[in-house]
Write a structure and sequence with these properties.
alpha/beta, Rossmann fold, Glycerate kinase, domain 2, 2 domains, six-stranded mixed β-sheet, five-stranded parallel β-sheet, 15 strands, about 35% helix, globular
């Protein structure tokens, strides 16, 4: 009887406002090595359209990043970037909206989605056009906005006016005054590019499960502001339906990134796609799953929302087709986390080992992820009878 090293597939997403997906994978890899020095480590960065989306796709295709200064979500300049893919896709620009309007760019004491804007996202699109992009791929995730992409569209020449013909202001609260959409001044270059957007397909714009009610509180909205934001989105949808003939009611992905999905589709002609359909074109997940003995995924928070398009659930579903065990790690294990067991997660753990503040957890996240991964692999080794180096009888 021979023995062989086990293969561990690490397939996390990033930890918002803490570790990027590459940093999470490297921390996890250290944990695997601590528990099973001989283990083979496979990597599948699960970029969901949020932070790390551009950098990861650029790295996977041998492309390049170009710095750009744009308007941030609170109106101040921020340093962002546009990516260009390598190889056959070298005229394809990659943009993550989080680089211009992400939640991490909004100071904690200024989190108010009635005021934050997607204007900088439009500036990123314009920068891609200036650099000769023929295709643009946009990732939606980790947003700090709720303006339905109004600011993005305004940056590209779309006029959004009130009943007196004046341009509405920026931020989600301005949508309530919207009376007319005018595309006549829209950047004409948009008519000659293909724009594809990776979104969470479960996020919708309107209704009780609409983006303002589900995610508004996470971005700092009070209950009264949530209702005002929802009403503003209803107004936006009604005006767009009348002026452009686009219907958002029940549209999959329209609620992505505070309704940016809706604005990208209706106001600049972008096509929305389930985000994992986009990401899997660049990550050879099936090849990794075919070689794996154990899958470990991770995300900042594991809760009742996880089965609805989040990375741990997507990985678990795909891993189960290969009959693989799946362990999920999270910074926070919240209400409804047990629902992940029904979609293929076999066990889940918080990386926290003692009570601590959020700031302490964020500052120590790399070590916490590594330690939690090491313990997860040790438990797997115990159950599978691995030797001290992480090898299994073949």
């Amino acid at each position: 009887m021979s023995i062989r090293p086990i293969s561990v597939l690490l397939a996390p997403s990033g930890f918002k406002e803490s570790l990027g997906v590459t940093e999470v994978i490297e921390a996890m890899a250290g944990g695997v090595a601590g528990a099973a020095p001989a283990a083979r480590i496979l990597r599948a960065p699960m970029v969901d359209g949020g932070e790390g989306f551009t950098e990861t796709l650029v790295q996977l295709t041998g492309g390049r990043l170009e710095p750009v200064v744009v308007t941030g979500p609170i109106g101040r300049p921020v340093e962002a970037f546009v990516g260009f893919m390598g190889g056959a896709g070298k005229r394809t620009a990659v943009i993550e909206m989080a680089a211009a309007a992400g939640l991490r760019l909004v100071p904690r004491d200024m989190r108010d989605p009635t005021a934050t804007t997607s204007y900088g996202v439009g500036e990123l699109i314009r920068a891609a056009l200036d650099r000769g992009a023929k295709k643009i791929l946009i990732g939606c995730g980790d947003s700090g906005i709720n303006d339905a992409g109004a600011g993005m569209a305004q940056a590209l020449g779309v006029r959004l006016t009130d009943a007196d013909g004046r341009d509405i202001g920026r931020g989600g609260s301005a949508l309530g005054a919207l009376a007319r959409v005018d595309l006549s001044g829209r950047d004409p270059r948009l008519d000659h590019v293909t724009i594809d957007v990776a979104v969470n397909w479960h996020n919708v714009l309107l209704g009780e499960r609409g983006v303002a009610r589900v995610f508004g509180p996470q971005k700092g909205a009070t209950p009264a502001q949530v209702e005002a934001l929802s009403a503003g989105l209803e107004t936006f949808a009604a005006v767009v339906r009348r002026d452009l003939g686009v219907e958002f009611d029940g549209m999959a992905g329209s609620g992505a990134s505070g309704g940016l999905g809706a604005g990208l589709h209706a106001l600049i002609g972008a096509r929305l796609h389930p985000r994992w359909d986009v990401v899997m074109k660049y990550i050879d997940l099936d090849d990794n799953l075919a070689r794996a003995d154990l899958v470990i995924t991770a995300e900042g928070s594991l809760d009742g929302q996880t089965p609805y398009g989040k990375a741990p659930a997507e990985i678990a579903r795909r891993a189960k087709a290969w009959g693989l065990p799946v362990i999920a790690l999270a910074g926070t294990v919240g209400h409804g986390a047990a629902s992940t067991l029904s979609v293929g997660v076999d066990a889940y753990f918080s990386i926290l080992t003692r009570p601590c503040s959020l700031d302490e957890a964020l500052a120590d996240a790399r070590r916490l992820v590594g330690d939690a991964t090491e313990q997860a692999v040790r438990l797997f080794a115990l159950g599978r009878g691995l030797d001290a180096r992480g090898r299994i009888a073949a």
